[in-house]
Amino acid sequence: MTNPAFPRFHLAFPVFDLEKTRSFYKDLLGCTEGRSCEIWVDFDFFGHQITAHLHSTEEDMISTNPVDGENVPIRHFGAILEWEEWHKLAERLQKAEVEFLIKPQIRFQGKVGEQATLFIKDPSGNVLEFKSFQDESQIFAAETKSQTH
Fold it and tell me: What's the predicted TM-score (pTM) here?
């Protein structure tokens, strides 16, 4: 869970089926449900509030940019988890035979910003990234000029 000393974010996003969305976020990811009505539902997303809003048309939400050898979906959201929590989630997703957009891996290995990462889609095509850092000081670390050349 998120440290209460840090601000929490709120994100609203489109979905096409609230029941599939509930199942994905509650049953698969383990998020608790908050308030809801017939057209939206809130979830506790690892200490942050996300709201799934029913949307009637399906749009292509996947454009990508290259990042460390992978085509990373531009539009995505996610959570930075503790190292062990990330590994438990990755294992749970693999056991559930979830289709990964980017399989669980270590990105920027041996470089500034080294992190565990994985990308999946929810039932409405929203892309989620889950990542973790063994060294949390690397979350916002930047390479120096000598490291980029």
Answer: 0.80
